[in-house]
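Entry 14. Structure prediction run on the chain below.
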Amino acid sequence: MLTAHAAPAALVLEDGRIFRGRAWGATGTALGEAVFSTGMTGYQETITDPSYAGQIVIQTAPHIGNTGTNTTDDESRRIWVEGYAVRDASRVASNWRNEKTLHDLLEEQGIVSICDIDTRAATRHLRDKGAMRSGIFSGEALAGKTDAELVSVVTGQPSMAGRQLAETVTAEAAYVVEPAEHGWEGAPRGEVVAVDLGIKAMTPQRMAERGLRVHVVPAGTTWEQIQEIDPDGVFMSNGPGDPQTAAQQIEVLREVLRARKPFFGICFGNQMLGRALGFGTYKLPFGHRGINQPVLDRRTGKVEITAQNHGFAVDAPLDGPVTAPVEEFGRVEVSHIGLNDRVVEGLACLDIPAFSVQYHPEAAAGPHDAAYLFDRFVELMGLEPADDELIDNEQEGDN
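Output returned:
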């Protein structure tokens, strides 16, 4: 339990900026890229999102931990953030679903964290200077150390650019998510292979709710192994690290595209599609993280409020369609753009069955504006509509 007498702690940035507070969760040393997340809710989903591997997350919302934690809301098998920084850590967890306080969960899993820091100042600093290497130090790791010594430890770690992390967070073995486990009645309407680059648990659930049997496979799965399953479609998930390092997954995706197998990608999967088509990717100054990011769907003209967690983006022409740099894949257009900074937020291939988005339509946590994308994937695979969809279509035809 967090007490008023918790040990001193420090969040140290590579440029020498230091934020001092109190130890929270485990004590020791945590090293990673400092980033900020703007979500007002969903802290448990945030810390268990594998896309945060290699990063220290600073929450901009001031009060964190008040509803505790539970096993149901975990998005993966463990906490993946390297460290966690908040302003006000709740001393009490008050919710009927609470099973364990956030402090106890962080401590149990060895996540070195810090509270009582000025997270607004830290966020403004990163917003101006960009995401950077950082460290949280507490207990013996902090005692007797000079500021220069702490900064030296921080700058001795690798930067996020060039890091290959998907293989460190992926499933150790393939598993299947059945539609019947998530409310679907009757036989599955289709089979999907989901390549786990750091997948969130809600993503295959959203597919299963639509009658899809989802074969979740490790990041290193080959095209030949995918062919053995013979799915109706292939999906690539979100995940951490630099997309330039994912050469194996990019080559697998090119085989998927050559076979005209319907493809859908989310987040890291969007970057995989971009690179498979021949576009480049680049590191954003501080990325997009939170559940309130506005995105324009250029096909419908609608603005969606989206959940996002990424530090890299696809470098593709906003004005299209254009022929993909890898010309065999035909024409492609940017289907979605971010309204804050006009970053590419989605790609749609026009001559092959493939599309992707940079954000998280599974809404865990976050808004449900983009849930239609899972239905778009079902349509892309040409699967028979569900009974309730048939009824809806017939009713629309009668009007």
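The first strand starts at residue 8 and ends at 13.
Filed with the rest of this week's runs.
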